[in-house]
Amino acid sequence: MRRNLSFEFASRSDVGLKRSQNQDACGKFPPDNSDLYSDRGQLFIVADGLGGHRGGQEASRMAVDIVQQTFFSAENLSIIQRLKDALETANNQIYERASKTPDLNGMGTTCTALALSHRKAFIAHVGDSRVYRIHRQKIEQLTQDHSQIAELQREGVLTPEQARFHPQRSILNRALGVQPTVEVDLIENLTLHPDDYFILCTDGLAKVEMEEIKNLILTNPLIQACDKLIQLANDRGGEDNVTVQIIRITGSTTPWDKMLTWIKSIILKIKNS
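Now predict its structure.
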């Protein structure tokens, strides 16, 4: 087994400039363990509550707690199935609590979870919180926002710039706890490489462009990158709470990896000759 990968982690959450309470919640689990090669894996979660002050806070905290508890208590299931079950369980319990508590009626939350195990990454996602990945100096958004504005952008009706500043960009068409059931987006078996970065964030970071995110992360220590991203979000209005988690995969490349890279380069040269 090639135990040559590890990771660094940093996280920050801020209330922003316009809100009185922070309805975001986040966590890294297990909090005191950083072993990528444990069978249970490493779990990172961000959630952005909606439905009023008390309801939003309650929903996002419930999501983080229930997802991590369900994920780590599951037996004899694949990681992606554990993630799916965890978000569905959170949806059921948040919906049930809201239906029985008048003050919490209508509450819900986004929830985006990233699991790392051995040399693979797995994602489960509902809402408009995001996962980005930086790989070989290029950044991409791995998750899709579950909002009408995002759908209009994907259909070409709105440009990315129009969508980023649209006044209705935060209106979701999918969230945990709003309906009795929920469809969970899943991404599995992404291969981890040294110097890959994974960024989880709530939509308070929506006005910061991907290239800006990439440049700040690649030129700063992780915790400073978190702070600067939050400062940039606040400089652009600070209209919402903002939470950022950054995971950097570290480790050296094994001789076998180097051999595979060399073979691939030879094959590519032959194809192009």
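The radius of gyration is 19 Å.
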